[in-house]
Amino acid sequence: MSPELAEKQVMVMIGGREQVESMNAFAGLEPSVAERCKVECVCPELVAPIVGHVTEDQDAERVSRLFSVLADPTRIRILHALSLSDELCVCDIAFLIDLSQSAVSHQLRTLRLADVVSRRKEGRTMFYSLSDEHIRGMLNNGLEHLVQHNS
Fold first, then answer.
1. What are the residue ranges of CATH 1.10.10.10 in the chain?
2. How many CB atoms lie within 10 A of CB 88?
3. Do 82 and 129 meet the contact criterion of CB atoms below 8 Å apart?
4. Which tens digit of pLDDT belongs to each residue from 63-114?
């Protein structure tokens, strides 16, 4: 690490006033990380309670994959139909969202592999439901968000 990166100028907000402080902030950082910011603004009263609580990369990747699965209008319509009932079969869903049974089955498989929906078999009929209340909550929160921001 180059000597000029040993000390870091940090703009700190204290009581609404900016104050510049030097600190050995680059200790332990790789040079590419250290070279990005020689001067930055940090509000310790805002940052301190959050340090160590930001999600890890692995968890962020898992949530990203979940949102990716949900980022499809057909799947959202299927989930919304399922959120309005305890369970529905493929034929019910196909009727409700006006799609072929084949298209619905394909989307349900994707949702099932992502643990977003569950299924149970009764005779020759497969019934689907939301895997848990978190999915219903996310869907409802998304729809409420739209209503609040469209008014």
1. 57-150
2. 20
3. yes
4. 999 999 999 999 999 999 999 999 999 999 999 999 999 999 999 999 999 9
Distance CA(37)–CA(95), nearest Å, equals: 56
**How would you list the strands of the sheet with 8-14, edge to edge?**
17-23, 8-14, 39-42
> From CA 77, how far away is CA 84, in angstroms rounded?
11
Mean pLDDT of 32-60: 80
Q: Which residue has the tokens 């959120």?
A: 83
This prediction has a pTM of 0.71
At the top level of CATH, the class of 57-150 is mainly alpha
Quickly state the pLDDT bin for 43 (edges 50, 70, 90): confident
Higher confidence at residue 27 or residue 145?
Answer: 145
For residues 49 and 77, is the Cβ–Cβ distance under 8 A? no
B/e letters for 9-29, b = 16+ CB within 10 Å, e = fewer, are ebebeeeeeeeeeeeebbeee
- Least Cα distance to 72 among 120, 114, 102, 133 occurs for 114
